[in-house]
Write a structure and sequence with these properties.
This protein has about 220 residues and is an alpha/beta fold. The protein has a single domain, classed as Vaccinia Virus protein VP39 (Rossmann fold), CATH 3.40.50. It has 9 helices and 7 strands. Strands 3-2-1-4-5-7-6 form a 7-stranded mixed beta sheet. The protein is globular and about 45 Å long. The protein starts with 5 loop residues before the first helix and ends with a helix.
Length: about 220
């Protein structure tokens, strides 16, 4: 999965073991399952990423899935977005230690300056950040039209997607699907909800939330 960069994954594993609990990055019960539940679980979603694409990892936290993706796929143009200063510091330390070409930005996906700076992504990833309704609202505006949100979820992914379908559509998302990554490689494959950004959203004034005015054709709808 990591190819000739396995040593970088091993070093990241060591760093999480050494600092993860003390710095509030992982829970104490996670130490014995870092590989399966965190590193490999994150890295397998690389199979959903086209070559050389722009990827934004929202709420990166300990660096999951962002750091494993950066190790497994050095072709990616990857940015980690994290609001907490102490976690931003951690991410910068990891990137320096592993000599990764990754940008770290402090902020939240819903903030205007963040959206202006990080707009038009090909892919946005999120792991255990929020329900789909909120994720779509935060993340879809960061995507180019045709870009995809990859939300790592648990066993209730299909139920959550069905529950929040109307809210997702309201912010420009298409009909989502639930896919499994790492089948045959992991004992428990990674469940990912995939939602494509198919349209810009509009506010009551008729202005698109991406800043463009409605066309004459739009006004006739």
């Amino acid at each position: 999965m990591f190819g000739d960069r396995l040593d970088l994954a091993e070093r990241f594993h060591e760093m999480l073991q050494e600092h993860g609990i003390r710095r509030g990055l992982i829970g104490p019960r996670e130490l014995d399952r870092l590989w399966e539940r965190h590193l490999l679980n994150s890295a397998v979603i690389a199979e959903l990423l086209p070559p050389n694409c722009r990827v934004l990892d929202v709420g990166s936290g300990a660096g999951l899935p962002g750091i494993p993706l950066a190790i497994a796929r050095p072709d990616l143009n990857l940015t980690l977005l994290e609001p907490m200063a102490r976690r931003v510091t951690w991410l910068q330390e990891v990137i320096t230690e592993l000599e990764l070409t990754v940008e770290v930005v402090r902020g939240r996906a819903e903030e205007g300056p963040v959206r202006e700076r990080l707009a038009d992504q090909d892919v946005v990833t999120a792991r255990a950040v929020a329900p789909m309704e909120r994720l779509a609202k935060w993340c879809l505006p960061l995507l180019r039209q045709g870009g995809r949100l990859l939300a790592m979820k648990g066993e209730s992914a299909a139920e959550e997607l069905e529950r929040d379908a109307a809210a997702i559509a309201a912010v420009g998302g298409g009909r989502g699907e639930v896919v499994s990554c790492g089948v045959g490689a992991l004992e428990v494959p990674t469940t990912v909800v995939v939602v494509e950004r198919v349209a810009a959203t509009r506010n009551a004034s008729g202005r698109r939330r991406d800043g463009a005015r409605r066309t004459r054709k739009d006004r006739g709808r």
